[in-house]
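Holo model, 2,5-dioxopentanoic acid. Inputs:
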Amino acid sequence: MRLGQIKSEGGYLAAVFEGSLAREVPGYTVADLIRRSEAQGVPLNRTTARLASHHPVERAPALPIVPAEVWACGCTYERSASFRDAEHGAREGMYAYVYNQPRPEVFFKGTARVCVGPGQAIGMRADSSFTAPEPELALVLGAKGDIAGYTLANDVSAWDIERENPLYLPQSKIYAACCALGPVIVTPEDLPDPYNLEMTCTVTRGGREIFSGAVSTAKLHRKFEALIEYLRRANPTPAGTVLLTGTGIIVPEDAALAPGDVVTIRVPEIGELSNPVQVVGAV
Ligand code: DO4
Ligand code: MG
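Output:
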């Protein structure tokens, strides 16, 4: 099932997406559906199917979930770890260390306040000169850490701020519109092999492609269960938490984001998450 949300009366309403059509789930957001399916012990797709309207309407997907919390993992692909060590002038430094250790890097990415959906502007900080998209597969979690579904995420990050000093990581990672999610959440029975997804990312400027990259989730160095276990160790997360699984696509500095650029992340089994770039925090 392709589950998501549409905008409705200043808020969001859950919907099942079939092609360009949406079947609304009156009275429920996606987080409500996850809580209901867990409370009743009925899988999310069946809970949703029972409640969804039988009258499809032409509606575009909006933010697929209003997440209680968003967390993210880092250095889960070799490319991400080696790039970040090189940024610090080390062949093998703290990022390679984390890549090779059982304990992954897990950091707080924010709340719904910093999230945007498909088509909405992602932010580049006015005080950053090297902001990059980080295309990632994201896990939508239930109250016990079960995977309710998969979506796409852009962990937009100010790499120059992160590079200056590791203690600046939260300022690189958490700011207005730093996280895009969408277009829909695919429930597990419709994504039998999440470790074999081809992900692509393009950045276009004035209609011209200035960057294109690709990675397979087969290159992910961790299992989702291990990432979730570390996230929730001594830290029980609420239903509707989203966990980003790390980037395997690295955008070079000469393609640093600029206002008006459009970043498009695509996984055929999930869809396309496309967002224009806008400066945030200019004085
Ligand atoms: O500490 C660096 C963050 C790494 C990250 O976000 C990633 O690898 O995706
Ligand atoms: Mg990341």
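The pocket of magnesium ion (ligand 2) is lined by residues 72, 74, 134, 136, 155, 244, 246-247 (CB under 6 Å). The first helix runs from residue 30 to 40.
Archived with the compound record.
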